[in-house]
Specification:
The protein has a single domain (about 5-415), classed as Orthogonal Bundle (Proton glutamate symport protein), CATH 1.10.3860.10. The longest helix has about 35 residues, at about 30-65. It has 20 helices and no strands. The radius of gyration is 21 Å and the shape is globular. The chain has about 425 residues and is mainly α. About 75% of the residues lie in helices and about 0% in strands.
C-alpha cells in the first residue's frame, strides 16, 4: 500500500478541521482542546526559525566571501521587492475599484470586533519611518535581536559574521563547521516537526471555523471573494509573467511548494514554512547563499499578499462609509503603504497594524477595521500563501539575474528532501 504523502496528510487535516469546527461551531470546549495543539505546533516551528536563518546565512556568506557580490545581490533583491510590492498595491487598488466590495454593505449586519489590542502597535508604527527601518537593521545587541526574533537585525548580524569568518581563513574553519553542523541539525529537526503538521493544521483550522463559523462570511462575502480572486490573479498572471520572463514555470513552483502552501494557508504563518521553503529553493537550483539571504529578507520587504490586501481593504472601508476616494487619494494611499508595509513582519497581525497606521493618514475612518477583524483570519490565510509564492519566486529571479541558477547543482539535497 502506497504511503500518503505529507501534502495529502496536511490537506486531510485541513478538511477534518473544517468539519469539526463547523459541527462544534460556538463551542468553547473545541477551542480549549484544539488551541493548545495548534499553539505547540507553531511554537515548535518558531523555535527553529532563528537558528536556521542565522546558521544558513553564516555558512552561505562565509562560502561566498565576496562582499561586492553580496552587495550586488542585496541591491538587486531590494529593487525587485520594491517593484513587485508596488505592483501588488496597484492591483489591490484596481480590484477594489473594479469589484466595489464595500458598496451596499449593511453595517448594522456586521459584527464589530474590538481592535484596541492593535492600536498601540499601530501608533508606534506611524512614527516608524523608512529611514528608521534601515537604522534598526543594525542591532545594538545581536543577542537581544535573536531573542526578539528581529529578522532584519538577525540577517545583518549573520552577514557580518559570515564575512568575518571568511576573512580570517583557517582560523574561521572551526566556527564555520559549528554553523554548518547547526544548520544540518536544524533541517533534520524541521523534517521531524513537519510530520506533526497535519495535527497542527487540523487544530488551527478547527479553532478558526468553530470561532467564526461559515455565517460570519456572508455579509462580507464580496470582500472575501474579491480578496481571494485578486490573490489568485496576482499569482497566476503577475507572478506567472515574472516567472516566464526569467524562464521558469509558475505552476512548477506551486507544485514544488504544495506542502508548504497548504501549511502556510492553514496556519496563516509564513514562519511555519520558512525552513522548508529555503530547502526546496535549493533543491530546484537556487544557490544556498541567495536562498538564505533573499527569503528571510523577503519576510520584511516582500509581503506581496499583505500589501495587495492592505490596498484593497483600505478602499473597501472607504466604500463602506460612502467615502469617494479620488485618484490623487489612492495614489497617496499607495505611497503611504509603500513605506508603512516595510520592515514589520515580526509584528502580530501585521496587516491590521499597517492598515491602522495608514487609514488615518488618508482620511478613512480607522473604526471600519473593526467590521472586518472578525474574518481577518480567513483573509490572512490567503495573503500568507501569496507571500510564500512571492518570496520563493524572488530567489529564482535573483539567481537567474546573477546567472547562478542551476537545477542540477544540488542533487544531494533533492535526495534528502524526497
Amino acid at each position: 500500500m502506497k504511503k500518503i504523502g505529507l501534502a495529502w496528510q496536511i490537506f486531510i487535516g485541513l478538511v477534518l478541521g473544517i468539519i469539526v469546527g463547523a459541527i462544534f461551531f460556538g463551542s468553547p470546549q473545541v477551542v480549549n482542546y484544539l488551541q493548545p495543539i495548534g499553539d505547540i505546533f507553531l511554537r515548535l516551528i518558531k523555535m527553529i526559525v532563528v537558528p536556521i536563518v542565522i546558521s544558513s546565512i553564516v555558512v552561505a556568506v562565509a562560502g561566498v566571501g565576496d562582499i561586492k557580490q553580496l552587495g550586488k545581490i542585496g541591491g538587486k533583491t531590494i529593487l525587485y521587492f520594491e517593484v513587485i510590492t508596488t505592483i501588488a498595491i496597484i492591483i489591490g487598488l484596481v480590484a477594489a475599484n473594479l469589484f466595489q466590495p464595500g458598496t451596499g454593505v449593511e453595517m448594522d449586519r456586521l459584527n464589530k470586533t474590538d481592535i484596541n489590542s492593535y492600536v498601540d502597535t499601530a501608533e508606534q508604527q506611524e512614527d516608524h519611518s523608512l529611514v528608521e527601518t534601515f537604522v534598526n537593521i543594525v542591532p545594538t545587541n545581536p543577542i537581544a535581536a535573536l531573542a526578539e526574533g528581529d529578522m532584519l537585525a538577525i540577517i545583518f548580524f549573520a552577514l557580518v559574521l559570515g564575512l568575518g569568518i571568511n576573512a580570517i581563513g583557517e582560523k574561521g574553519k572551526p566556527v564555520l563547521a559549528f554553523f554548518q553542523g547547526t544548520a544540518d541539525a536544524m533541517f533534520y529537526v524541521t523534517n521531524q516537526i513537519m510530520k506533526l503538521a497535519p495535527f497542527g493544521v487540523f487544530a488551527l483550522i478547527g479553532v478558526t471555523v468553530s470561532k467564526f463559523g461559515i455565517e460570519s462570511l456572508i455579509p462580507l462575502g464580496k470582500l472575501v471573494l474579491s480578496v481571494y480572486g485578486t490573490m489568485i490573479f496576482f499569482i497566476l498572471v503577475v507572478l506567472g509573467l515574472v516567472a516566464k520572463l526569467v524562464g521558469f514555470n509558475i505552476f512548477k513552483l506551486i507544485k514544488t511548494l504544495k506542502e508548504e502552501l497548504i501549511l502556510a494557508y492553514s496556519t496563516a504563518s509564513s514562519e511555519a514554512v520558512l525552513p522548508k521553503v529555503m530547502e526546496k529553493m535549493e533543491k530546484i537550483g537556487v544557490p544556498k547563499h541567495i536562498a538564505s539571504f533573499v527569503i528571510p529578507t523577503g519576510y520584511s520587504f516582500n509581503l506581496d499578499g499583505s500589501t495587495l490586501y492592505q490596498a484593497l481593504a483600505a478602499v473597501f472601508i472607504a466604500q463602506m462609509y460612502g467615502i469617494d476616494m479620488s485618484i490623487a487619494d489612492q495614489v497617496s494611499l499607495m505611497l503611504v503603504l509603500m513605506v508603512t508595509s516595510k520592515g514589520i513582519a515580526g509584528v502580530p497581525g501585521v496587516s491590521f497594524v499597517v492598515l491602522l497606521a495608514t487609514l488615518g493618514t488618508v482620511g478613512i475612518p480607522v473604526e471600519g477595521l473593526a467590521f472586518i477583524a472578525g474574518i481577518d483570519r480567513i483573509l490572512d490565510m490567503a495573503r500568507t500563501a501569496v507571500n510564500v509564492v512571492g518570496n520563493s519566486l524572488a530567489t529564482i529571479v535573483i539567481a537567474k539575474w546573477e546567472g547562478k541558477f542551476n537545477p542540477n547543482h544540488t542533487e544531494q539535497i533533492a535526495e534528502n528532501i524526497g
